[in-house]
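Collaborator request, handled under Task 6.
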Amino acid sequence: MRLHPVLRLCAAWLAAVLLAATLGTLVQTQVNLAALQALGAEIPLALRLRTSAQDLLGFGPGWAGVIAAGFLVALPTAAWLARRRPAWRGALCALAGGVAVLVALLVMRQVFALMPLSAARGVGGMLALALTGALGGALFAALTAPGRRRGG
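Structure tokens returned to the collaborator:
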């Protein structure tokens, strides 16, 4: 059974959002735990895993909403640009995903007057979160590539 092209695009967008949100949540969690370790707290592996699972359930859905909003504009725009430069499709979608996350973070900083995501308060954390968006964008590019088998 073949997926309708619009359903295929929606499924690819959703997969990209879920990947970026999951990875971004895990980055946020691990940066926070690393900060606690730097203060002298012991963080055993079991606690890391439990905290990661709790954050995926607690923080993850909200972060997924932020990612979804950014990807709703960024990924279709990148796909549209890629129609003119097909060889750049993967790079454009990855760049769009990363930029969408950076823009979302910068908007949050302006709205809240303080970065609400502690992982994004430093350049390294902000870039790590942007990388998760880029990976989501790359997944979107791979799942929507022209010529890809369109089965369901």
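The cover message to the collaborator said: "The two ends are 5 Å apart (CA to CA). The chain has one domain: 5-143. Please let us know whether this matches your experimental observations."
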